Amino acid sequence: MRGAGVPRRTVRLAGLAAAALVAGLLSGSGSAAAGRDGPLTMAYRCAFPGGDQPVHVVLTQLFPDTGAVNRPIQPGDPTMAVTVPRAAVDGLVPDTTGTLAGTGSLTARVTQGTSAADAPWPGLRAPAVAVAGKDDLVLTFKGEVPPVTVTAAGEVSFGAGALALELTPGKAAATDATPSPVPATAAPVKVACTPEAGQNTLLGAVPVPVPDPTPSGSPSSSPSSSAPASPSSPTTPSAPGTSPGTSAGTSPGASPKPGAPHNSTIKVEPPVHSGTYDCDVLPKGKLDFDHIPLKDEQDAGATVTETTFDLGSCAYATGFSNVHKLSGAAVINDAHSAKGPSLTYINMNVRMAVQPNPPQYYEFDSLGSMTLPVADSTFLTYGFVPTTAKMALTPDPVKPLLTIVTTGTNFVEQNVITTIHGYQWLRLYDVRINGTPLDVGPNCRTRAPIQLALVGLQDAHMPGGGDGKPDYTILDGGPLHQENLTIPAFTGCGTHGENLDALFTAAVSGPGNSLNLNQGTLCAPWAGLGCDASTGTEIQIPPLPHR
After folding, report:
1. For 172-210, what is each residue's pLDDT tens digit?
2. For the segment 150-169, what is each residue's pLDDT rounded down to a tens digit?
3. Between 171 and 494, the higher pLDDT residue
4. Other CB atoms within 10 Å distance of the CB of residue 265
5. 157 phi, psi to nearest 5 deg
6. I want to staple 27 with a disulfide (CB 3.0 to 4.6 A). Which of 169, 228, 328, 500 is the partner?
7. What's the Cα-to-Cα distance from 497 to each of 131, 200, 490, rounded to whole Å?
8. Do residues 323 and 27 make contact, with C-beta atoms less than 8 angstroms apart?
9. Which segment of 87-91, 124-128, 232-236, 391-395 scores lowest on mean pLDDT?
């Protein structure tokens, strides 16, 4: 009778499985939806504080060429140009040197056959626009929206419904050498808009064909999908939440009769509620000057100011990380996990550098702190071996804070670039192969911390509208990317004489990896922005990014 020990070859295969697991934990987001749909022009009536006003809205959005039963259908990023009448602008921003920015939520009506569901699309953002002049003001909202899933074949239509806006008045940037460290903004104004009756509301439609039947006894196969599989599991789970009134109808393998109504369950990814209304951590410490562009006043003859006040703020950021060597899927800071996502805390504008004379230069440096929750991952190694593990990303104890550098200003036609620098250690533990523990030891981690350098761009104010992608600002949030992240080699992996370091390093470590995050609106209690327990305004958890 053999002993209880695990054969060396089995351990090595398990080590390879664990290395593939790390790739799964660090893998990428889905591709952007491709479509063929043009702009939709709609008339809304909006309830401004001074009275109802007609509002002209142009919506542009792409949709996938095809969808699949029981697979996420991912609409493209919408662009919504909202023309605010001058009378409403003057009522919101009486100061002609002021600005107007906003966030928006569009309700999409999703229909298939006799089934229908409302899909809320929150988190659309419009950057600040100067209100000078006498013309109407156009605010351009952009953002990302969650997918929907249907359980039957047939065309899925997306229609534009009610629109909710939060418009935030502000002041133009200071022109002297010492700008105000606190954004001069008023409280957001909520404006509800309803579409006028009798008009076309169709944003786009996605055909969903009947799946090919699977031969009896053969392995099940998934049809091609318009969206990536769930990042946290080998199969795509149903999106949580089903719209009231929908019902299960045509079976996935049955073909609906031409022209006959059919039923389908339309599953809408609902907004995730944080239940959090305030920031309870204030990052304090020193900036990492290895990442500060302008070290002192001698660099450019600029005025450098180190502030003595604290501007405690916080936001949620969710997303994916991607490994170049191997494919897989995992979510960073998963909003749907049992413990929920973690906040990133920010102490804004602890240092400012301004050069008002040409070439003008603006730099705002902030401190941040981020401790991500442990990620649980389940997927199939080699396509059939269930593998689970826990991954911990922890701040470097030597440099635990984030250094956040924002350069440029949108008031002199400059790109506004925000870069978030930091250091995180990656540790792997509680690894199980087909339910059997693989002992990687308590210290299976990277040899050095992962160096973060997430970049967000604000350029919609530039001539030509910038790159056309959603903007990022610390206040409004938006997409953050790191396109060339290096994962260091692994150490400390394995016990009982088995060294698995080389396996993890060969499978995962190296350059060319990436991070893709989406930050929600900043909660800034000192400015009255983004959160308020008295009004029930909780801190926003943004949808996962897609590219």
Report:
1. 544 444 444 444 456 788 999 999 999 999 999 999 998
2. 999 999 999 999 999 999 88
3. 494
4. 19
5. -110, 145
6. 328
7. 70, 69, 16
8. yes
9. 232-236
What are the C-alpha distances in Å from 64 to residues 120, 205, 224, 545?
A: 19, 9, 12, 16
Closest Cα to residue 92, out of 107, 82, 102? Answer: 102
Classify strands 402-407 and 445-446 as parallel, antiparallel or unpaired.
unpaired
300-304, 363-367, 370-374, 508-512: range with highest mean pLDDT = 363-367
- Please choose, from the candidates 470, 480, 473, 458, the residue with its C-alpha nearest in 3D space to the C-alpha of residue 522: 473
3-state secondary structure 246-273: CCCCCCCCCCCCCCCCCCCCEEECCCCC
Q: Dihedral through CA 220, CA 224, CA 225, CA 226, nearest 10? A: -170
Q: Residue 51: which of 15, 80, 88, 21 has the closest Cα?
A: 88
The secondary structure of 445-491, three-state, reads EECCCEEEEEEEEECCCCHHHCCCCCCCECCCEEEEEEEEEEECCEE
Cis peptide before 228 (omega within 30 of 0): no
pTM of the model: 0.69
- What is the Cα–Cα distance from 500 to 472, expressed in whole angstroms? 40
C-alpha to C-alpha distance for 173 and 412, rounded to whole angstroms: 10
Check if the beta carbon of residue 500 is closer than 8 Å to that of residue 17: no
Average pLDDT over residues 408-428: 91
The residues, any chain, with a CB within 8 Å of residue 58's CB and separated by 6 or more, are 39, 40, 41, 42, 80, 81
Residues 179, 186: Cα–Cα separation, whole Å: 18
Per-residue pLDDT tens digits for 268-312: 877 778 889 999 999 999 999 999 998 877 666 788 998 878 889
Burial zone of 538 (CB within 10 Å; 0-12 exposed, 13-18 middle, 19+ buried): middle
